[in-house]
């Protein structure tokens, strides 16, 4: 990575005739190319992935045919991510940027400014769910104002069946962008769809019979998972970086008691303080449920999701 400047990479793609149509429609892209020095032929396309689950998905489908870069480093909470000028330039020079509009405003902006036709918005290719079922009564408004830029919940990767829908579309887009490897993209996309389908079945079976179906989570990341497997999510906060109001914490405590919740879920990148206080108050334990917003410390998307399933089954008292 990083041997060739982005402009050169972009040019080499153009030399291959891959993006001619796209660039003709995009004035600034054409100007950039004209100014760039000659690029080496045969360089791979570069695809920028906004954060971990999209990186994983892109890598599965791209295989060896694409250089995949990620904007969110491991261990970094992706909401409110800020981009370096180099990263913005990287978005401009990439063949494609895979992102979810509404999750990371800085990424949305970089894509908009650098040719939206090169953006692959995962939220645009599957059916989305409304932002949050229950409005937080009093919240730090500044903290989650960005959450209201889009009306849907961006955490769609936590439903494997929806994520499989993204995989198919991403395979098609890669095939269009790099026709020489079209067949390979489509085959790898189909394989990824099958792996996600198997995961989806495990969740459906594993969560079929449980003594409670309410999950109290650190932030409202699990709406799609809850929707798919008929669970009820109660998020302590909407934005992982915002402190929930005392009124919200009291409300969650009330629901947790009424629903006989045994476990308050925390996540690695969010402070566990509020969750621990809440757990003590309602006589519950805490356990980590990974919203997969950053690369898991071990394994990958599939294994971390299976870890989540095990955690959920224990917490919800699921049998069979
Ligand atoms: Zn989130």
Automatic annotation (TrEMBL):
It comes from Nonomuraea recticatena. PROSITE patterns: PROKAR_LIPOPROTEIN. This is Zinc ABC transporter substrate-binding protein. Residues 1-30 form the signal peptide. Belongs to the bacterial solute-binding protein 9 family. PANTHER family: HIGH-AFFINITY ZINC UPTAKE SYSTEM PROTEIN ZNUA (PTHR42953:SF3), HIGH-AFFINITY ZINC UPTAKE SYSTEM PROTEIN ZNUA-RELATED (PTHR42953). It holds the Pfam family ZnuA. Keywords: Signal, Transport.
